[in-house]
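Hey,

Quick one before I head out. I ran the complex with NAP overnight. Inputs first:
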Amino acid sequence: MRFDGKVAIVTGSSDGIGRAAALIFAREGGQVVLNARGQDRLEATRTALQAVGKPPLVVAGNVSQAAVVERLVGETLQQFGRMDILVNNAGGGTLLRFLEEVTEEEWDLTVDSNLKSAFLCCKAVAPAMKRQQYGRIVNVSSVAGRNVSRLSGPQYSSAKAGMLGLTRHLAQDLGPFGITANAVAPGPTLVDRVARKWALRSEEDRARILANIPLGRLAAPEEVATVIAFLASDDAAYVTGVTIDVNGGSFMC
Ligand SMILES: NC(=O)c1ccc[n+]([C@@H]2O[C@H](COP(=O)([O-])OP(=O)(O)OC[C@H]3O[C@@H](n4cnc5c(N)ncnc54)[C@H](OP(=O)(O)O)[C@@H]3O)[C@@H](O)[C@H]2O)c1
């Protein structure tokens, strides 16, 4: 019960990695706040969490908008009076693009949903975490932010690399208040969305992707979520400003 008494906001938690992390927090005694834009999947995830732990608070909306983030953090504090864990997970990549093909709209969308959302959420939770002299922030970056993106493009690599810079600054600025900030850098992970695309790829295409992963397979969402949970727990109390590669070794390739 590592998260007993802790309140955890997980952005983008109706599906995939965020959902898997929310389930771990709930199973281990935490009070989870779910967020995503679409209401249907959120309701399904609410039901799944209720089956294993405390009923979650659900705050729908696009976290690249400041007003939504204020509502998310405001409702959390109003309901639970504290705010211990923030997982900046919302986001994702657009299709594979070369530099000249990236439109301004795609750039803005990718940077806003991945990087701006993390900035807004950190800014919104910082005052409460400082008051508590306690906080755990985990940013979900990508192997694309450590290296280059083989499945998206420069807009995605730049946004995810930006999250690593943000992580270091958070660790520096918030460390004196007992707040840690770390990142994970997952490789291709078999969330439902990726699994559907994976099934449509040719054998050659799959072999090309797997050749860059020393462990020779894609990750399961739970394999990323367990590392997020570690960084959010007191097992990682003296870890801050780091990025953990959860990518089967593809960071090296
Ligand atoms: N899966 C991978 O291969 C992989 C690899 C490396 C890094 N990552 C990163 O891991 C994170 C989670 O990805 P995933 O693969 O688990 O994705 P996913 O299964 O597609 O789930 C994404 C979640 O984020 C929500 N979301 C997206 N944009 C949002 C926004 N602006 N505001 C609020 N919610 C938003 C989605 O719901 P709605 O659409 O309803 O809002 C959904 O709940 C992302 O940051 C992604 O870049 C994924």
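The first strand starts at residue 7 and ends at 10.

Talk tomorrow,
K.
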